[in-house]
Amino acid sequence: MRNLIQAMLLAGMVLLSGCVEEVVTMDQPAPSLAAVALDGESVAWGDYANTVKYLVFWSSSCGACMDAMPVLEALAIENPDTLIIIAINIDTDLDSLAELVKQTKLTFPVLQDQLGITQERYRVIGTPTAFVIDKEGIVRDAFQGMMSHRALRQFIRSTINKYS
């Protein structure tokens, strides 16, 4: 058993050694997503083409994150053709996350980053952390920390106007 684990780790390291490190940089293409949808399906930026993307990293234990979810949901509903909210959860319990999304009735994509790869690519050190990605997939803005509901609405509306 131990040899199998060692062999798997070695194979993983060999595979990863050929990977190019992706790091978020303003005014450059957004690093790829290594998070998955709640149904386990992988996702890519191409799944959200031709719209402004508000990418937010969050945790269910983050009060500010949970407080912002209804505002983000309303903004997603108000702007279906110009904005996609993509919420990447950094918690490790997928079952609890699925239940939370069901209870809060979130309709925008909620992704799971159990391995922390996407967090690392985006240099997330706390939640909430958000990025604005334009229609062409270029990172245009970043914000860390809590915003009032009013400030969040204004920020996202100005983002839509600026990058649509």
Q: Can you walk through the features of this model?
A:
With 164 residues, this protein is α/β, with parallel strands linked by helices. Helices cover 38% and strands 18% of the residues. It has a single domain (20-163), classed as Glutaredoxin (3-Layer(aba) Sandwich). It has helices at residues 2-17, 63-78, 94-104, 117-121, 149-163, and strands spanning 36-37, 52-58, 83-89, 110-112, 129-133, 139-144. It has a 6-stranded mixed beta sheet, covered by helices on one side. It is globular, with a radius of gyration of 17 Å. It starts with a helix and ends with a helix. Mean pLDDT is 89; it is low at 6-18. It is found in: Cell envelope.
- Count of beta strands: 6
Catalogue the unreliable spans: 6-18
Integer tally of domains: 1
First-to-last CA distance? 54 Å
Please trace the helix and strand order, writing H or E for each element.
HEEHEHEHEEH
CATH architecture: 3-Layer(aba) Sandwich
Mean pLDDT score, rounded? 89
Class from secondary-structure proportions: alpha/beta
Largest sheet: 6 strands, mixed
General shape:
globular
Q: Roughly how many Å is the radius of gyration?
A: 17 Å
CATH class assignment: Alpha Beta
| Helical fraction | 25-40%
- The CATH superfamily is Glutaredoxin
Strand order of the largest sheet: 1-4-3-2-5-6
| CATH structural fold name | Glutaredoxin
Output the number of helix runs: 5
Q: What amount of the residues lies in strands?
A: 15-25%
